[in-house]
Protein 1
Amino acid sequence: MGFRCGIVGLPNVGKSTLFNALTETQAAQAANYPFCTIEPNVGNVGVPDPRLDKLAEVAGSQKIIPTQLGFVDIAGLVRGASKGEGLGNQFLGNIREVDAIVHVLRCFENDDIQHVENKVDPISDADTVETELMLSDLESLEKRVPAAQKKAAQGDKEAKTTASVLGQALELLREGKPARLTVPRDEDEERVFKQAQLITAKPVLYVCNVDEESAASGNAHSARVFEKAKAEGANAVIVSAAIEAELIGMDPEERMVFLEEMGLHETGLARIIRSGYELLHLLTFFTVGPKEARAWTVYQGATAPNAAGEIHSDFEKGFIRAETIAYEDFVSLGGEAKAREAGKLRAEGKAYVVRDGDVMHFLHN
């Protein structure tokens, strides 16, 4: 299952620098002028999970393969993008294809780096981007809802559902609120809402890009962003893109020494990746053996056959049962054989809902 987070924001807020650090590449050109990024850059990064290393140690696995999140560096948006300003149409098309939005906000002062609106105000920047996204969704729904209402009046059942759920979203947008506040009432409405691919329906993670001195505790700018995120029920993290860029190429020991000197316990990127994972309501299960210890991703609420399908579609089709051990039992007892002896290996059927940290082995036709 591929999950992608789109990195968005105004030009020159640090999106491409952050993307380079996330993927530990120089894939995204970083420069001090607007629209440096035109085509979206895409990179996959491993989700940090110390449990995977421990499982590999217990099982003597030769390889360790973390679960992945995709990050897409999307061109900077400017005021008027919904009307085609800048690279507006291209930006909006690219962002519709991601699962969540990582919104980078400039929370540092630097006269040498141009700001597209000549001021440092992350709340204003966030409002500019959000307004353009809402205007784009509004334009889309003002065409789609009347058409659905017309069909609904003729007795079309699917159109009734569409008119109802998208009508709610349209009213929210007209009030200046994002479509994510829409509350579908049943599975049919949920399906229609997802299929609509509304940009403002996507979950948001605010990334406060601060100066190096503020990386550990933030500053006045980032504090305002955290207040905004709390009010919206969104997530926020503090990162110094400049520090993350310096970490590229360092070995693990060098990184830890450098981070300690900066008063940090982990990289900002680790926080972004983990927050993105939580934002999408994902969980991790593991497969462990002598060849490899591997992490896999599923949505919360996934069943054992759903998890089997992440490994191979045939596993889901021919699912028989899942031999399952809780992570804590696998580690404390010293592996699969001893967990089996202790009665901690469970045979779970099709209705079993996967728990975060499950170590699973699937039996299938």
Note: The first helix runs from residue 15 to 23.
Protein 2
Amino acid sequence: MDRSDLVTIDAPKLAELLGDWVTGSGPLYRKLAAAVRSAIEEGTLPAGAVLPAERRLAELLSVSRATVVAAYDLLRGEALLESRQGSGTRIAADVPVRSAVDDGRVRGGAATTIFQRLVDGPGTVISLTRAAGTGVPAVGTALREVLDADLDALLATDGYHAVGLPALREAIAEHFTVTGLPTAPDQVLVTTGAHQALGLVSELYLRRGGSSVLIETPSFPGCTDVFRSHGAHVLSATLDEEGIDADEVAAALARHRPTLLYVMPTYQNPTGTLMSGERRQRITALAARHQVPIVEDSAYDAFRSTPEPPPLAAFAPPGADVLTLGSLGKTVWSGLRTGWVRGPATIIERLARRKVLADLGSAVLDQAVAARLLPRMEELRAARDVELRAKLGLLEDLLHARLPSWRWRRPDGGLSLWVEVPGVDTAAYAQVALRHGVEIVPGQAMDGTGRFRSFFRLPFAFPEPVIEDIVLRLAGAYADLTRNGPVETTPVRVIV
């Protein structure tokens, strides 16, 4: 194999692929070897790929170098790894790959750990990979109303509502109109969550090898994974306290002419920033000037501390293409997989054709429940605000008391703190945190520039006793990392 053909897996990427390898019992080197073995057998680590040097991987995993050496040695003895002079340690060229149907693991992308936790369930680890609260009681009330008043009429149809249940499209249109964006039902497509809406938009606009998307940084990795899965190159612009930097957007639009501009103006994930009205107006004017469509993701409009401007699309000049994504997941319940995309009717029709090919239409009962909840959104959000404000206050008090060196800006809204741990690579901290039973999303997973390696996302929608436990575990992990350095709990002796 020519050296130029080798795939190199750097230490952060390998750590991401290994997930929560450190949990469970037994010596660390055996747990590390088992995680690497599993990744090799399922094909996540391809044959011939070059692995990180022992010292660098040990630093990132916050273990002793002897742990990594022993794990590599164990896998060499199983003929899964091989070492060559001058080319380091690599996956053996002829390793068997287990069929993908043998397990259901999520593979590839910066959001791998987040999505894998959805598959695995919480286990014994408190996972911070999801920013979502529990369902509100109004869901049960709406469901009973549907069963009592709507079910017979729904059953009298064939159940196929490819573009969305008419009552729900009307409710969504009215919801936008009330918030300052006049909307007709034919400008709305109902989707199975906002994530599906993003996938449909990507399918419509992006072409492999010839498309690019300009996004905020940091940003939610699940979105960038969707763009990259459609072959797009991802560009980034930084954030300030008013939202995405307009000067950087202007420069990127002029220089790169991206296919799409993707922004989260209303409580950006992970920072919780609310884009100002003035900034919204400037961003839409820039995009219209360069004829670049905007994807406005408003799925994180949960807790709010200040009045919101109208949706970004309300500021767009005539003829500009702005697609607004939303859902009930963060405000009402993520289990109600109901989302939508609002845009020009001609584009909604094109998206609808792709939606039909994907699933023939979203679940009707879920849509009927959503149609009854949407008129109550202001009331539901007000109740959620009270709940989340109390939890945020508790989390901040606990962090100030136990981790006074950590820094953050109180979010304008949303469900998370974007926390800086000064002088610490949070990818390494994540490995220590796992040993204390808490799983975090490090900054490098939410940013491709390397500027946020000392940050991580800390959701606060948990029950208050869980928030207390989270901070206790995070503080213990931070003490281990800063005072003791890498920890080896079991002596490593390899006898060949």
Note: The two ends are 29 Å apart (CA to CA).
